[in-house]
Fold:
Amino acid sequence: MEPLWSQWWVWGVAAVALAVGEVLLPSYVLLGFGIGAGVVALLLLVGIPIGGSIPALLLIFAVVSLLAWLGLRRWLGVYQSQVKTFDHDINE
Structure:
């Protein structure tokens, strides 16, 4: 029997939990981790030989999460010389 960390559904549950966490704490960090976990789950589901070792899985997870976070920050984040300002108060 395979170890728990090398089963696709564990990574899928982690991806969904991180995506739900992103809804509760919007910062694009958890969504990047969720995308990383989802990619690992997809690779394990399809059957791409990753090696099945925890270091290989964590390396793929870390690299994909970092790339997803950088992409989300570039696509949805604040641009370099742009600053968010607020001209009014919600209570006015």
Observations:
- Residues 4-75 form one domain.
- The CA atoms of residues 11 and 41 lie 5 Å apart.
- The longest helix spans residues 54-76.
- The mean pLDDT is 84.
